[in-house]
Write a structure and sequence with these properties.
- By secondary structure, the chain is of the alpha/beta class.
- Helix content is 18%, strand content 26%.
- It has 3 helices and 9 strands.
């Protein structure tokens, strides 16, 4: 599917998921945002059901990449069991060629990134700073949530001043920020 495959972006809320965008990606990709796993019911059962749906879907194969757009958990202070469930799926149940995890604001604080536990997994890539990654025939820009840095500035300052050369065109941008089209606060990134 290198020239005509489809990327599916799925937004997960507590009770439903929906396909937001279908477009050409030059490789199969499944993009999932904001699972916010937590111990409390009915949220735990719903996230377990969704992880199982991914496992049993036609997309769970070695020709597809999985892109998780951050906020894998509701809180940095979650139980180890919530993270162990992800490890079980990533190692034992998912067949994806590669799993990319964009760091979200619920996955990190000023001093640590909860997702770093996934870094030893050879087919999982935790993205905790902006990166351009070539997937299939597409240039993908990844913009994770980053904390304010006293030297490099705020996330808004850093991302609004990104300079990407014209030779590095961007086919897709995957991000865990608020953009100018949909934001809940006065601070957003002008993509």
């Amino acid at each position: 599917y290198f020239c005509d495959s489809t990327i599916f972006i799925i937004s997960v809320n507590t009770k439903f998921f929906r396909i937001i965008l279908r477009g050409y990606f030059m490789k199969k990709g499944l993009v999932v945002g904001d699972l916010h796993r937590r111990e409390k019911e009915p949220y735990l059962s719903q996230s377990n059901d969704f992880l199982s749906w991914i496992e049993n879907s036609e997309y769970n194969n070695e020709n597809t990449s999985l892109i998780l757009l951050g906020d894998l958990v509701e809180s940095m202070f979650c139980t180890a069991e919530l993270l162990e469930t992800y490890v079980d799926y990533f190692v034992n149940r998912y067949l994806f060629d590669k799993i990319y995890i964009v760091t979200g604001n619920h996955d990190r604080d000023l001093t640590s990134n909860l997702l770093s536990i996934f870094k030893p997994l050879h087919h999982v890539e935790v993205i905790d700073h902006w990166r351009m990654i070539h997937i299939g025939y597409s240039n993908c820009l990844f913009l994770p949530h980053i904390e304010n840095d006293p030297i490099e500035g705020s996330m808004i300052e850093q991302y609004n001043s990104l300079s990407i050369s014209k030779s590095n065109h961007i086919d897709y941008c995957f991000f865990h920020t608020e953009d100018e089209t949909s934001h809940f606060s006065k601070s957003y990134i002008d993509l």
